[in-house]
Amino acid sequence: MKSQMNIMVKKFGGTSVGSVERILNVAKRSLDCQLLGESPVVVVSAMSGDTNRLVALGDQVFPHHRGPAYDMLVASGEQVSVALVSMAIERLGGKARPYLAHQLGIFTDSMHSKARIQKIDTQKILQDIEQGIIPVVAGFQGVDDADNITTLGRGGSDTSAVAIAAALNARACEIFTDVPAVFTADPRLVPKAREIPKLSFEEMIEMAALGSKVLHIRSVEIGAKHGVRIHVRSSFESREGTWVVPEGESMESAVVSSVTHESSTGVITVEPLPKGTEVLAKLFTALASKGIIVDIISQLEIESGQRLSFSVGTDDVVAATGLVREQFGSHVSISTMKDVSKVSIVGVGMRNHPGVAAKFFSTLAQNNVEIHLVTTSEIKVSAVIDRPLLEKAAQSLHSAFGLDQ
Amino acid sequence: MKSQMNIMVKKFGGTSVGSVERILNVAKRSLDCQLLGESPVVVVSAMSGDTNRLVALGDQVFPHHRGPAYDMLVASGEQVSVALVSMAIERLGGKARPYLAHQLGIFTDSMHSKARIQKIDTQKILQDIEQGIIPVVAGFQGVDDADNITTLGRGGSDTSAVAIAAALNARACEIFTDVPAVFTADPRLVPKAREIPKLSFEEMIEMAALGSKVLHIRSVEIGAKHGVRIHVRSSFESREGTWVVPEGESMESAVVSSVTHESSTGVITVEPLPKGTEVLAKLFTALASKGIIVDIISQLEIESGQRLSFSVGTDDVVAATGLVREQFGSHVSISTMKDVSKVSIVGVGMRNHPGVAAKFFSTLAQNNVEIHLVTTSEIKVSAVIDRPLLEKAAQSLHSAFGLDQ
To answer: B-chain residues within 8 Å CB-CB of A72?
Structure first.
């Protein structure tokens, strides 16, 4: 029944609904799809700039406040765009119904500003579709058991869209955005970067974790878990972009499918720490309790104990250093790097191709790029390097792994 | 129980929450009242300018659209101010809970953009008050049976506040606004205008109907029906303003309590119309069906049939004239006046004082103000006059009826 409906969830981001003209364009695209036999379900973000404006207002009234009132505040942006897109569809002669999270039934836990979706009612959407009505749903927001508005965190509209697609067993979830596809690297950094036609969920998750901003990582995780095929494409062009699909569906996997980077990260090195894992456990527990996310960790036994290096967000370097000093006093020497970047390669093909890490290191070595910290997984290799060398590193890796063409 | 709680509903208008500084001021005032033993329930409008911005966006997407999407759009303004006022109260150390209409349970009919309140749940508010929490409620909005957001029409936050006060059996409803009180006339027109300490509901209803913008007429009607005492006062000063109360409570009633005006109205005169009331019934039914509100009507038998004059809003003069022409063809002569004003006197004391109308006419005659159209009720006299004479007419009536001091 549901699959006969040919449901396509279409998520439009902030720039795609950033003006009256673009909102009318979203309405037209949705109606065109309906004419072609699709049953579109539209999910929208706030108009670009709106969420920033609301966050700034909130921060002026009560800095760093998080809770029901704050989520009510920032969720109002999606309320505006949902209403306007619905009106635009009606303006163009279609039928639309606007839904806020509480009206549809997008239930989440009560972790304000980073809530997780628990359940989505699909009954109203299915009724609308049967009547030729296009449901227009507010992304980013949910409702908890106490009827409070919750929000899913920045970029959460992607997550809303994929979760709705999963609940509806939709044919796919299309993410309309201001870039035409996912690229093999950031074209601003690597001019030879190319569009990737197909990616596996695993690769996309790694890329999102490693700094690619195209998709919100939670959305890809939900897509992977429920097998929702995600299509990242431009809201300003009609051609296809990048399909994110289960691994089996990918074309013959490239060994490396992309070079990803994060321009700004920080590294803290401490030595000598007392020996033993307990010491590390205590430190990382303390960092986590302050909300400091640790990315790469490298540990080495040395004569006088152990040497530890780890990377954190640039903004957290001072707090993390303070915490280390608090725990270990003046017995240790601490050095920090704030002006460093992270460059990574990602690809499911790595699993079956030995020597990828070796090639990664030798490429960087040939280009005189020193590595401060390294981490690897089954499908990625990451290194922290000096920021001025990031462009050279990314371009040479892109060439070395055959991504230039 | 409820009255022991000493509940005061406090409504803050758009200018009172128009900036971060003013929002913090609203929070402070509410907390100060709590310290003095009151149980405040705060009702807020959208930040000044916000509703206009949203209406303009909506009109660009789909001009004149009215329905669930439009009401969802414009209701987002109150969502922002409710959230910010709640955050501000918490910032200053108090406890607050933000409520949108659907969260509290402000149920209305489904007449979008002019919905009427049918029922308000007070349970959550009463629970909050018992726990020392200040409920902060979105004015202007409601929710219908189908869980759609509705709105009450411009100025509807006054109505929300008085209806909430009625449901809670509150001690009073305070309307905080950008003027310190209701005046005997508009001070911009009549420099000798004074603040009115007490007014009856009936007088305030007439004044609102005759052009006073201080209170939304529906709110006064609800106040009158449920005996909710309304206190209009400045949100920037602490002194008292105007109390609107049941008639018995008024001080010895002034014969005339105020001079009210509308700068801009239109008059249409048609003759000769065929004799008979049926002709008039048909015409006014047709005008009503086009949404044209007719204010004053004057009819006179003449030799060739009847002569009819009636006043409508300036914007409706062209449409109304067209309709008259459509109904009566070229057999009648139609004359219109677009540059005219209406001046009125209001006072419950008129009931027991004959000669008020005579004094009204003679005052205008002495000042050479010609009257185009007149209407009277038990507690008011209104006349349509040339706009350039409005100031002189209002000032001379203000003096003649002893309002200068």
So the answer is: 79, 82-83, 86, 98, 100
